[in-house]
Amino acid sequence: MNDFYIILTACLVALNCAVMGSFLVMRKMVMIGDAISHAVLPGIFFAYIFSGSTSSLPILIGAASSGILATIIIEWFTQKAKLQSDASIGISYTLLFAIGIILISKFGANADIDQQCVLYGELEYVSLWLEPIIGNFYLPRQTIILSIVCIIILLAVLWGYKGLFITTFDPNFSISTGIAVGFWHYFLMSGVSLTTVVSFESVGAILVIAFLSGPPAIAYLLTGDFKKMLFLSCAFGILCSIIGYYAAKLLDVSIAGSISVVIGIVFAVVFITTTRQKSKIDVISD
Prior knowledge:
By secondary structure, the chain is mainly alpha-helical.
């Protein structure tokens, strides 16, 4: 049953990240997920200071607040300081991450806040915190939270798909027609923040970035239809989660690391295959 809990949790993270990551890949903003996942440390620290607890709810609220703050700072640097988005992301997340490390190491030594957990997650131990669902059926607490977030993300994307799609692929047209580009940007960033913050406790920041970038990039290589890209991205995320878990179990290595490696291998195979096919088509057409 422990295997089922771990795979289910990883697949839920993959689904959430695949949906959000597909929009980020097309907007060339995928590294903002990395920024948010690293920028949560100050929020975690202040949540502990004000609540006096390391329980999930206050930590989640603090981390989400810090993630949204990182998004606002990045947008401010991009719009007001006229920096490139990658420079804004780099400055913002390193600043907040460093502040968080200093605060935790200096003032939170007795808080039992593990910085390594933020990076690598605790996917192996997800079944230690089980909650009753129906009768004798139990699910890990983190899996329940991820399931709720998955429903929220899917409903939000279904509701706002048209606005997200137009502002992603043709922002200039959106501005000229009076579509609230700023609203849809922060709508998407809120979803990314929620997805990242909820996911990093289970799988860690490294795997969150792998899920946000890998499956959408694989799907992007295989199709030019964005709706198909969304479905393919989710499918590849789930497939890599399952293969990565059993590979980790076979080799006795980190589950998060194993899944990340599998994502990289699948991307490399798809990239080489599609490149060769494109080369053949070019030769025939010539």
